[in-house]
Design goal:
Layout lengths: L1 H22 L11 H11 L3 H17 L7 H12 L24 H21 L3 H6 L1
Amino acid sequence: MLKVLMKLMEICFRNFLFILDEKLPLLERSELANKQTSRSIFYATDGIIGYVMKLIRGALQIALKQEQEFITIDLLAASFDKHIKQDKPGKVNPFINDYSLIDVPDFSRESVKAQLAATNKRIKGKSELKTRASSVLQT
């Protein structure tokens, strides 16, 4: 079940990147949805749409200033360093040439569980602070 969920999440993420790529005001597609690039983007942003947009907007600004026809991996690397790295200091830039994609999580179980459980953790966190009558009576 979890494996199917992970695959579905990857497909949805890549579809999002494909649509985003189509909407960019550039002459050519940047191939953001290809497997390698999409996994690097997912790793860099933890799949959080706000960070994805921050990364792509930064790369797009550089591309437009440099009159590039599409967003390159080098532009994504520069955007990561400028816009994402400060919020995620433990992350290694997945867009640099000598970075091994073997180290990039392939939509790992931990990542998927963290994404799916985020809301539940916030709810559980509040309820765990309250003392329950049953726990008081047991002592």
